[in-house]
Write a structure and sequence with these properties.
Blueprint (H helix, E strand, L loop, with lengths): L1 H21 L4 H31 L2 H25 L4 H23 L1
Length: about 110
């Protein structure tokens, strides 16, 4: 998980700046972006931990259960944003959610 820390910190900073710039004009989508970024970081950390445990224990059952629980937890949040405000605020959530993963993938691609 050591190689994961820098992209996650960078994505937290970038998402926080983007959300703070947008909060004046679009408060709910900016909140969705910030929450999506935090959920994306948490998802990346939980996924990395699950993969580490899968490598050590060779038991896929726990990894599958944790994957479904992450899907349920992080899948309901954008629906809540879409239900409480403009439906397109869900897009801002997904932009924040997948940004840490995209930044990590870009950093891995640079190293190889």
């Amino acid at each position: 998980m050591t190689g994961l820390r820098r992209p996650l910190l960078q994505s937290a900073l970038i998402v926080a700046v983007a959300a703070s710039l947008a909060v004046y004009w679009l408060p709910l989508p900016a909140l969705a972006l910030a929450v999506g970024g935090l959920c994306g970081i948490l998802n990346a950390m939980l996924t990395a931990r699950g993969i580490e445990r899968l490598g050590k224990s060779r038991s896929a059952g726990g990894f599958v259960i944790s994957s479904f629980s992450r899907l349920a937890l992080f899948g309901i949040v954008p629906v809540a944003f879409a239900a409480s405000g403009p439906w397109w605020s869900m897009v801002w959530y997904f932009a924040g959610f997948f940004f840490p993963t995209a930044l990590y993938a870009a950093s891995v691609a640079r190293l190889s």
